[in-house]
């Protein structure tokens, strides 16, 4: 721990402990994993939202690691996955042979760790959709946006033929609040930063969620955070339209993929 404190003095105690647990886990499982340097903020400050760490097994049932292991295995076995059994998924995304690697509660740090530990092996997707950040409660808006940027950069590095779509964070809370304002700031930073990566684009899917009086309805978010079926459809439709455009290859691209 002292080594981590000297190397990354700006990490919070929680982030430093998570990083330490990540290193112990890799040593315990005898897995040698190369981690790209975390995205830095201004100067030499390390962005804690771009440090890959697994979720601590606080409850002791190993569910998060079990899901990660399942995703890694399905990268090897699957041929057209349908992991989300809901009508919207079956209607819009199952025909595209989509796979869902989402785990509830994950932060940018957790997603980075999973991507660097097997979840990109044995797959060659044409498009990758990234939607993460609203659970980064301990990080600033700039750190969250930097963590999402680090994920996009890692995807481009590992999957150079794929196009990356980053979904904007949704508003949260029944009425205007600091977390909703932070998500809005994150989206603004992503709009500015992502075009520099080239094969990455930002998609805002928040249209219609906030009423003119600033409130959010339980019709789209039953607890003002998690989506209802109607809320999922509001997000899925513009995403589906974009995916169909991205997957509509030119004749040259189609011939190249056949080769």
UniProtKB/TrEMBL annotation:
Location (main, coarse): cytoplasm
Subcellular localization(s) per the UniProt record: Cytoplasm
The keyword Lipid metabolism appears for this protein: yes
GO molecular function terms noted in the UniProt entry: 1-alkyl-2-acetylglycerophosphocholine esterase activity; platelet-activating factor acetyltransferase activity
Highest taxon listed in the record's lineage: Eukaryota
Pfam families, A to Z: Lipase_GDSL_2
Catalytic activity: 1-O-hexadecyl-2-acetyl-sn-glycero-3-phosphate + H2O = 1-O-hexadecyl-sn-glycero-3-phosphate + acetate + H(+); 1-O-hexadecyl-2-acetyl-sn-glycero-3-phosphoethanolamine + H2O = 1-O-hexadecyl-sn-glycero-3-phosphoethanolamine + acetate + H(+); a 1-O-alkyl-2-acetyl-sn-glycero-3-phosphocholine + H2O = a 1-O-alkyl-sn-glycero-3-phosphocholine + acetate + H(+); 1-O-hexadecyl-2-acetyl-sn-glycero-3-phosphocholine + H2O = 1-O-hexadecyl-sn-glycero-3-phosphocholine + acetate + H(+)
InterPro entries recorded: SGNH_hydro, SGNH_hydro_sf
GO biological process terms, semicolon-separated: lipid catabolic process
Residue span, SGNH hydrolase-type esterase domain: 93-233
Membrane-crossing residue ranges in chain numbering: none
Keywords of the record: Cytoplasm, Hydrolase, Lipid degradation, Lipid metabolism
A GO-annotated cellular component: cytoplasm
Cell membrane listed as a keyword: no
EC number: 3.1.1.47
Family as reported in the entry's similarity comment: Belongs to the 'GDSL' lipolytic enzyme family. Platelet-activating factor acetylhydrolase IB beta/gamma subunits subfamily.
UniProt-listed PANTHER family: PLATELET-ACTIVATING FACTOR ACETYLHYDROLASE, PLATELET-ACTIVATING FACTOR ACETYLHYDROLASE IB SUBUNIT ALPHA2
Annotated protein name in UniProt: Platelet-activating factor acetylhydrolase IB subunit alpha2
Organism: Conger conger
């Amino acid at each position: 721990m002292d080594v981590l404190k000297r190397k990354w003095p700006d990490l919070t105690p929680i982030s430093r402990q998570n990083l330490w647990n990540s290193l112990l886990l890799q040593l315990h499982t005898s897995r040698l994993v190369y981690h790209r340097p975390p995205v830095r903020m201004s100067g030499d400050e390390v962005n804690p939202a771009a440090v890959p760490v697994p979720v601590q097994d606080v409850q002791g049932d190993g569910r998060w690691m079990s899901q990660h292991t399942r995703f890694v295995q399905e990268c090897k076995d699957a041929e057209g996955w349908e992991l989300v059994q809901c009508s919207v998924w079956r209607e819009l995304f199952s025909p595209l042979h989509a796979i869902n690697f989402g785990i509830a509660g994950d932060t940018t740090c957790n997603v980075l760790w999973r991507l660097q530990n097997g979840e990109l092996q044995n797959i060659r997707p044409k498009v990758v959709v990234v939607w993460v950040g609203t659970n980064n409660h301990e990080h600033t808006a700039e750190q969250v946006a930097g963590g999402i940027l680090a994920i996009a950069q890692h995807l481009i590095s590992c999957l150079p033929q794929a196009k990356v779509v980053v979904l904007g964070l949704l508003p949260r809370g029944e009425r205007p609040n600091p977390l909703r304002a932070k998500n809005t700031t994150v989206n603004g930073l992503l709009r500015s930063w992502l075009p520099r990566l080239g094969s990455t684009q930002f998609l805002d899917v928040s249209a219609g969620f906030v009423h003119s009086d600033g409130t959010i309805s339980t019709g789209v978010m039953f607890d003002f955070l998690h989506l209802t079926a109607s809320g999922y459809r509001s997000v899925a439709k513009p995403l589906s339209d974009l995916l169909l455009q991205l997957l509509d290859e030119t004749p040259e691209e189609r011939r190249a993929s056949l080769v």
